[in-house]
Specification:
Length: about 450
């Protein structure tokens, strides 16, 4: 998938925060057992199999490429705090989300014991847990994760009642708007579309920017609208499709935007970055997007549009009912095949602790999963919208929890893009049928 709730976008837009440094790739440890005896001992030591008395255990941490340097600081902090018990070795995954998942799947399917800790996109937990590749968090380890973590962020790490990962960072969308065009931000989708249409009549910038292309971002839009309308895509056990009337309402609103003068003519091919660029170009009045757009606007147009670039909570689908925006982010999981599970759990807890999540937020632009950090004054300069982010996260929704998420997402995005082609009732019926077939391993992926 091109994006999974802002994680990819945050990396892509790091330059908007003035962050250009790219983390170095490290050599992977592969095939130690097939080399000669003399070389095998060297390979095993590099892969984290050092025995007691020979120094710290090396824990391989497979994580996404990051640009800010925050991850390097996390690792340095945790290595120091381990007091010689372990050293975390950062193994850089590919840039593309699909390639990241594929590498981890191949390693885990091969029972690769060099994998200790993994960064998981919030759409992978069900698949990895269902396959038995990751170890549930229990006892004190679990309690340390649960205490103080934002509930929807915690839900991303749950599967069949078990905590299978630890939320590291999260993300959510806000409504961004121009205060020179809109004095009071709209509270509902209907109000926003009406405001945009009025601006059009006045000959002013008026477009509503959102992700209408046929990709993961469009699935996120639909999931947000369905949950905001009081529904879900699947039941809690991921055995049945539960779209119904809320899906029809969600699709009707998406169709209404697409058919209105408020829609950007390029809606059907737009992703997060195209939305950002349209807003910065001055053709839009509203934008539904992740917080990366704020530092970007500050960098790209500090003396112009940035001065009138404001934010508000995501518009409601049902008046008076807070929107349930689909959250993104990354979680940490411990491999079933790690030879150092206890240390891996300890290191993962350190990587996501309060100090490191604050660094991730202020240096890396990654919203924390620890609720109390949103009251931390050190966050305020980088997150002047911290209160709105926390409120959005606390009311947030998660993507459909299923090991078949990749297929479900494709089914949804192919039926909701282009948005102008949506027929609310028939599209909802077709979506229910296609996803039901996917859950039963029937039919073809679009």
């Amino acid at each position: 998938m091109a994006d999974s709730g802002g994680r990819t976008v945050s990396r892509r837009r790091a330059r908007g925060r003035g962050i250009l440094r790219r983390a170095s790739s490290r050599l992977r440890c592969l095939g130690a057992g097939v080399v000669g005896v003399a070389l095998a001992s060297t390979a095993l030591a590099a892969c984290g199999t050092s025995s007691a008395g020979t120094g710290p255990v090396t824990l391989s941490f497979y994580y996404f490429p990051e640009l800010s340097g925050a991850l390097t600081t996390w690792i340095k902090n945790c290595n120091a705090q381990s007091h010689g018990k372990y050293t975390i070795s950062y193994q850089v995954l590919p840039t593309a989300s699909d390639a990241q998942r594929l590498q981890l799947v191949r390693r885990l399917a091969a029972h690769d014991s060099t994998v200790d800790i993994m960064g998981l996109d919030v759409t992978w937990e069900a698949e990895f847990a269902n396959a038995g590749w990751i170890v549930p968090w229990t006892g004190s380890y679990k309690q340390q994760v649960v205490n103080g973590t934002i509930k929807p962020a915690l839900e991303t790490a749950m599967w069949k009642g078990q905590l299978v990962a630890a939320p590291l960072n999260t993300n959510t969308q806000l409504l961004w708007y121009r205060s020179d065009l809109v004095k009071t931000p709209p509270k509902t989708w209907a109000e926003m579309i009406a405001m945009a249409e009025q601006l059009k009549k006045e000959g002013k910038p008026h477009y509503i920017e959102i992700q209408g292309a046929q990709y993961e971002g469009n699935t996120v839009w639909f999931n947000t609208m369905v949950n905001s309308a009081g529904g879900t895509v699947l039941n809690p056990t991921a055995t049945k499709v539960t779209l119904g009337a809320p899906a029809v309402k969600a699709l009707s609103m998406m169709k209404q935007l697409a058919d209105s003068s408020a829609a950007d003519p390029s809606l059907s091919v737009q992703q997060e970055d195209q939305n950002r660029l349209a807003m910065e170009a001055g053709t839009a009045a509203f934008e539904l997007n992740y917080p990366f757009v704020y530092p970007s606007m500050k960098t790209d147009d500090p003396n112009g549009l940035f001065k009138v670039f404001k934010w508000a909570l995501y518009p409601q689908v049902i008046p008076g009912v807070p929107a349930k925006v689909t959250i993104g982010g990354a979680d940490l999981a411990v491999s079933k095949y790690s030879q150092h599970r206890a240390l891996a759990f300890q290191a993962a807890l350190c990587l996501r602790d309060r100090q490191n999540q604050l660094i991730g937020a202020t240096v890396g632009g990654l919203p924390p999963t620890i609720a109390s950090l949103y009251s931390e004054p050190k966050m305020f300069p980088a997150y002047p919208f911290h209160a709105e982010i926390l409120q959005a996260l606390e009311h947030g929704s998660v993507r459909p929890k299923t090991p078949l998420y990749q297929v479900v997402s494709i089914d949804i995005s192919h039926l909701t893009s282009p948005p102008a082609k949506i027929n609310p009732v028939s599209t909802a019926n077709k979506m229910s049928s296609d996803i039901s077939n996917a859950l039963q391993s029937k039919g073809l992926v679009p």
